Amino acid sequence: MTSYELLCRDPSSAARRGRLQTRRGPVETPAFMPVGTQGTVKAMLPETLQELGAQILLGNTYHLFLRPGHERIARLGGLHRFMHWDGPILTDSGGFQVFSLGKLRKIDEAGVRFQSHLDGSAQVLTPESSIAIQQALDSDVIMVFDECIPYPAERAYVADSTARSMRWAARCKAAHQPDGSALFGIVQGGMHADLRRRSVEELLAIGFDGYALGGLSVGEEAALMYQVMDWTLPLLPDSQPRYVMGVGTPENLVEGVRRGVDLFDCVMPTRNARNGVLFTHFGRLSIKQARYQDDAGPIDPACDCYVCRHYSRAYLRHLYQCNEILAAMLNTHHNLHYYLGLMARMRQALEQGRFAAFCQDFYQRRSSAETDCG
Fold first, then answer.
1. Residue 372: per-residue pLDDT
2. For 10-40, what is each residue's pLDDT tens digit?
3. Domain 3-266: assigned CATH number
4. Domain locations in the chain?
5. Catalytic residues
6. Where does the tRNA-guanine(15) transglycosylase-like domain start and stop, copy by copy (predicted)?
C-alpha cells in the first residue's frame, strides 16, 4: 500500500521533506519524475537514470494504449518488466494528451472519443477504461481521468468541465481494483479560486491516496501559476502527497517546493536537451549558438556530471550541428542530472534547516549569470 510520511518542515515557508512509500519502494520527496511517455525516457538507459538519482518515472496511458497496447504489455509482464525499470512508475491518465488533440476529440459525459494521432482510427477513453489500462500496465500510482482545461477559458466552460471531471473522479474511484496501487485525484478549476476550492472539497469527499493540481503550465504566466498553488495547496491534506502536473522550469520547482509540493514531472529537461538547450546553475544555455564553437569549457563549471567532466561546449555544439544521436544522449544526461540534483539539494537543505538560504543562493546565481539565458 502507498503511504506518505512527513519528515520535516521549513519554518520560513510551506516547504516540506517527506517520504512516499509505494509497493515498489520509497520515493524521497520533494522529487522530480523524468517523463517516459512511451515506455522510455528518451535517450536514456534505465541504469543511467538510476545512477542520476531518478526514483520514480512517469508513463503515459494514452500513448501506451495506442502503441503497443496495454494488453500486450500486460501479457509481457507489465510495464516495469517491459521497459526494464524496477522502481515505481506513475502513469498519467491520458487526459492531457486527449486535450492536446483539439478538433480530433469530442468530450461528453461518458468520456472522450478521439482519432488516433497515429492512424486516424476512432478510439474511446472513459474513466473506467483509463483505470483499467493503468492497472493492466501495473502502474504504482494511477491518476484519475480528467479534462485538462485550456487557458484562457470562459468561466462557464471551466465550471462545467470541472464538475464533469469530479464526476469522472468518482467513477475512477469505483473502477479502481485493489492491487496495491495508489489512486490520485486531480484538482481542476482553471484559474478561479472558488472553483479550485470546490474541486478540492469534492475530491476529499470521494477520498484518494494523494492529490494533484492539474490544468497548470497550459500557457498562463508563472505568477498566476503560483497564485493557483497558493489558493489550492493549503486546502489539501497535510498527511498525503501533493503533485503538481507538467511543471516545469527550475524556478517553478523551487517555487513549488516553497509552497509545499512533493512531486513534479515535466518534459522540459529532456525535450530541451534534444533541442540544444541546457540547464545550468546560472540559467539556460543554448549550445546551438556560434559563440561556443571554440569553447573548451564544460556546460556548467559548477556541475560534476559525467558530461561536464568529459566534454566541452565546442564538442557538444559540434554534435548538435551534425544531428548526431550522441548529442541527445549527452544533453539529456546533463539536464536530468541538473534537475534531479536540484531536487536532492532541496531535500538536503530542508533536512539541514537552510531552505531559505538555498533559495537565496539559487536566485543569486541566476541574477549574476554571464551565460546566455535564451
1. 52
2. 999 999 999 999 999 999 999 999 999 999 9
3. 3.20.20.105
4. 3-266, 273-367
5. 92, 265
6. 14-367
